[in-house]
Design goal:
mainly beta; AOC barrel-like; 8-stranded antiparallel beta barrel
Length: 165
């Protein structure tokens, strides 16, 4: 192949490789803010009667995304794993939150543990918990990073996603 033909070919390959590399990291450094109102809990008393490991709380709530008019939702499952831990009147709960945007194909999944007041279904008002983003689909395929969930004083919620991929 002549040098005259080789230079444009090398440029096309370089542009294609750059587009692939940059396209795969398009979520890096972005934040996404999701809000919603108060949640209604469905409660399943698992394990032994009363507060115990195995109690399950289920949530679903419509959400709004800052800067978007597209509707969304959050579905969540929370399971108590520790009672009176780390101190009397507190519980450790493992939570999986699934945030869906625009359509069922665009999702971000958040999971992790937090400390909850035993008497409540959710974290205390005016508090924040941080959990890892463990994946996503569609627009958010391969998402990672962390999510800060804040229970605001008026009972509403704010979730800020710090996307690393």
């Amino acid at each position: 192949m002549s040098r005259r033909r080789l230079i444009p070919l090398v440029l096309v390959v370089a542009i294609a490789v750059t587009a692939l590399v940059l396209g795969g990291w398009s979520l890096r450094g972005r934040t996404l803010t999701v809000t919603h109102g108060a949640m209604t809990t469905s409660f399943v008393d698992g394990g032994v009667e009363g507060a115990s490991a195995g109690d399950v709380r289920l949530f679903e709530v419509p959400t709004a995304v800052k800067g978007s008019s597209a509707p969304g939702r959050m579905d969540a499952v929370m399971t108590t794993t520790g009672v009176n831990v780390p101190d009397q009147g507190s519980e450790i709960r493992v939570t999986q939150l699934v945030f869906t945007f625009r359509s069922a194909k665009d999702q971000i999944v958040v999971t992790g543990t937090s400390v909850y007041p035993a008497a409540g279904s959710v974290i205390a008002t005016d508090s924040t918990t941080v959990r890892p983003i463990v994946g996503g689909s569609g627009t958010y395929s391969g998402a990672s990073g962390w999510c800060e969930s804040t229970h605001l004083a008026d009972g509403t919620w704010r979730h800020v996603f710090h996307l690393e991929r």
